[in-house]
Amino acid sequence: MAIRKHAGLIATSVVALTALAVGGGAVAQAPHARTTPKPVRTYQDLERETGLKTPAGLAFGRMAVDVAGKDWPDTVSFRCYSNGGHVESGLKAPPATKVFDNVYYLGDADVSSWAIKTSQGIILIDALTTEADAQRLVVDGLRSVGLDARDIRYILVTHEHFDHFGGASLLKRLSGAKIGMSEVAWQGLARQKAKEGSPIPERDLVLEDGAKIMLGDTSVTAVLTPGHTPGTMSFIYPARLNGVEHMAATWGGNGFPSAIKDRFTFLESIEHFAGYTAKAGVDVELSIHGDNDDLIGRLERLRAGKGNSFVAGRERYLRFEEVYRLCSRARMADRGDF
């Protein structure tokens, strides 16, 4: 299914920018040095941490700060950052962590893998960068929380970058799991060359827009959300806590595209996915990169017994989505895309 076109979204942005962008197009950006993301809580933080410069870009960015409030300052920092994508934090990988009754974190400090336990095995979202990562963080990580990687039945890959599929072949050899991704992602893999320790998995399960992957008592919904890459998919699935079922969403591709047409596609995908998250009543956000949402800090607080801040609630989740919209427009406005 093709992603829906949202002309109204683009038209609204153009109207807003016409009023805001006194002085015209984007100015040239100097490289913005940065190590790990620093939370953006104020307008001053926004200018210092993101490098946004134009009146229109800053206007959208300030709206994102207001919407994020105290809940999503790291998301503003990453999403509104004008000149780059993910950074290597240099932090030690957190231990495998049981985040919900049925959902486990297995990644390192920068790239995530999520295991969903079902009544008939495990569904894994993303497989990390290398087979060594998959062995150390997924296989050994599952063992440390009382699970067995041989019970993995599906490996759902968000997109066609090595840091999300590099370990999939090892896990498939170990478990016999089916590897699922979009048709466009499979085509993208066919054009790539394997890297040392990160083989290209053989073509397997093709996931279509809106597909439901059923395993035992659990259903995962796959949604096409291109933009970061042409084949990006995002996922919605149940996350149970103390007998209460919540619904989690994992956005599949965070890095903002370099091509203008892909940036507009990214905006359209936000709206497309929002339609699915609204229908599902999503109230939990689980990311594939920790710099997007203070993932590592939330895991630390959870392990320290300071509560489960992964349960956002519906209103907070909606504000997370709105930060994605506003910061995407901020970055596009800063480049003169509108």
Automatic annotation (TrEMBL):
InterPro entries: Metallo-B-lactamas, NDM-1-like, RibonucZ/Hydroxyglut_hydro. This is MBL fold metallo-hydrolase. The keyword Signal applies. Keywords: Signal. SMART domains: Lactamase_B (SM00849). Residues 1-21 form the signal peptide. CDD domains: metallo-hydrolase-like_MBL-fold (cd16280). Coiled coil: none annotated. Residues 110-276 form the Metallo-beta-lactamase domain. Gene3D superfamilies: Ribonuclease Z/Hydroxyacylglutathione hydrolase-like. Pfam families: Lactamase_B.
